[in-house]
Amino acid sequence: MKKILAMMLALVMALSLAACGGPAGNSPATEKPGAETSASVNEGGLPYEGHTLYVANWQGYNSDQAYCEKAFEDATGAQVEHVYFNSYDELMTTLLTGGNKTIDAVVLSNNYTQWFHDDGLISDLDASKLPNYEKIADVYKDQAPYAVDDAGSLFAVPWCSGTSSIAYNPDYVDFEIEHWSDLLDPRLKGHVMVLNGDGDSWVIGCLLAGEDSNDIENADIEKVRASLNELKGQLLGFWSTNDEQIMPWMAGDFWAGEIWSGPYSQLLHDSSTNIKLVHPEEGTVGFIDYWAIVEGTDEQDLAYEWLDWIMSAEQQTSMATGISEAYPGEYMTYTPVNAEVIEALTPEQKIDLQLDPMPTTIKLLPYIADPAVKDQWVDLYQEFVS
């Protein structure tokens, strides 16, 4: 519990650092993926020609964008194939039923990393094979229980962090939304959306019920159940992808609810719609997303290259700014963890990343150590989304 509280305080400090970042126009140095590779280059070719790396992630979540996927392919010679999932329970089931033979690396939120590690689905990592890990901001390194086990073994590397807060459309909502409880207003019935994710559901349910998700094992689950049932009656539906947020918003069906920073940034810059961001004083959902290598992969060296690339200043800059000179396009943005990139954020980029205004209180997706308690909360989540 003390480790988790310390991590929350550190995350607030890191986001504050980002909000006070370096002057506009200071771009961090970039490097090509594989520049610090441990693999030997094939004579006359790229190091991984003929190899295919299978990575699992949410669709549209950064790693399948050209500045990430194609840049890695062009530098290494490997082909990257994405395997998409709609929930971490689905991903866990896939790996437990043979998917570990076809998937090499996975994205996991901080409340799932240790579960996957404890079940033997992701492997311990050798930090010496990940030169860019040293470039990650200290606040994100070696965090237990999310990335390091009790024995001190590293098993996941941070990739991005951020918040999922409340957004609403003033064109349809004629009152000011300030708290999660405002989503229960009858005027919003049938026009509220939230993520289909257990950790987010638990945090939002606790915020609505006045319970502390940072101490979720001692929270009153029945009070949270009642609050989530009330919220469920307000919902248009659940979203799992960027498009599932943007499309109903643009159609005028999604008026208020939880939103990721990427879709928020895109909607913020779309003159045909309106959006306002709120960080409720009682708390904002916070997350750290990690990459890990699947236990038993036969492309371990290539998977290490992928994890190292995902933390590089080049990839993190494109992820944070949505700008890539080598691979131009329209991209969503996400909060980086590379220290150089954090320092270089401009004031405008902080707004896009939900760092201006700053959240007052961050509630990280909770990790539940007790298996019996975890099962109770998983059952509650499944009841909520069913």
TrEMBL record:
Residues 1-18 form the signal peptide. Keywords: Periplasm, Signal, Transport. Its main location: periplasm. It comes from the Bacteria. One of its GO terms (molecular function) is polyamine binding. One of its GO terms (cellular component) is periplasmic space. It is found in: Periplasm. This is Extracellular solute-binding protein. GO terms for biological process: polyamine transport. Pfam families: SBP_bac_8.
